[in-house]
Write a structure and sequence with these properties.
The structure is a single chain. Helix 3 runs parallel beside helix 4 (131-147) and helix 4 crosses helix 5 (162-180). A hairpin with a 7-residue loop joins strand 4 and strand 5. The chain has a seven-stranded mixed β-sheet with strand order 1-2-7-6-3-5-4, with helices on both faces. It is globular and about 50 Å long. The chain has one domain (2-180): Leucine Aminopeptidase, subunit E, domain 1, CATH 3.40.220.10. The protein is of the alpha/beta class. It has helices at residues 38-47, 49-58, 94-111, 131-147, 162-180; strands at residues 2-5, 8-14, 24-28, 66-70, 78-82, 116-119, 154-159. Helix content is 41%, strand content 20%. The chain contains five helices and seven strands. The chain binds adenosine-5-diphosphoribose. Adenosine-5-diphosphoribose (APR) is lined by residues 16-18, 28-30, 35-42, 84, 120-127, 158, 160-161, 164.
């Protein structure tokens, strides 16, 4: 699925984020930037040890925030390590922290003059955030950001499985319908 937001492209695709041809890939990181499984494992495996060397130098990144390194052997120029919240049932400020992790990633990308960026679905794997609750936050945060003045002209959400892809399509359609109405 693809949408046009103020002349900028927003795409939802299924696949592996490490294979995207974009300036920056967003990692679903932990606050220690220690690496892990899921997206984090795939990015470090594909990008090589230089990314971890830079993560160690950064020392960590708070939940709801995002920090940048170069991308090692990946096609992208940068990896933006975004730290989403662990799902604790929804009453521990998870929604605010998830929105903030997306927004900070976009701000960091904008500061670097990045034009294209790929996101995974933050927090919906090991951190157990339910995709139907996460998708509206992810899509509306990105749509609102790229409506404004930014170097970013293309955002791709790379969704790994059918149910997450469906949740993102539904959320984006609903957000765009509400804006039209
Ligand atoms: N490309 C795109 N999406 C992927 C990929 C991939 N290569 N691998 C996994 N996913 C999907 C998962 O299916 C899930 O929908 O990304 C989403 C996020 O899952 P996680 O990677 O587990 O991220 P998160 O829930 O934010 O948990 C972060 O897990 O790996 C550790 O170090 C990481 O501690 C951190 C935690």
């Amino acid at each position: 699925m693809q949408a046009n937001v103020n002349g900028k492209i927003l795409q939802l695709v299924q696949g592996d984020i490490t294979r995207q041809e974009v300036d920056a890939i967003v990692n679903a990181a932990n606050s220690g930037l220690r690496g892990g499984g899921g997206v984090d494992g795939a990015i470090h495996r594909a990008g090589g040890p230089e990314i971890m060397r830079q993560c160690r130098r950064l020392g960590g990144c708070p939940t709801g925030s995002a920090c940048v390194t170069t991308a090692g052997r990946l096609r992208a120029r940068f990896v933006i390590h975004a730290v989403g919240p662990v799902w604790h049932g929804g009453s521990s400020d998870e929604a605010t922290l998830l929105g903030s992790a997306y927004r900070r990633s976009l701000e960091v990308a904008d500061e670097k003059g990045i034009t294209s960026i790929a996101f995974p679905s933050l927090s919906t794997g090991a951190y157990r955030y339910p995709p139907p609750a996460a998708a509206p936050i992810a899509t509306s945060t990105v749509v609102d950001f790229i409506k404004g003045k930014t170097s970013i002209n293309k955002v791709v959400f790379v969704l790994f499985n059918d149910s997450t892809y469906e949740a993102f399509c539904q959320a984006l359609e609903q957000h765009l319908r509400q804006e039209d109405g």
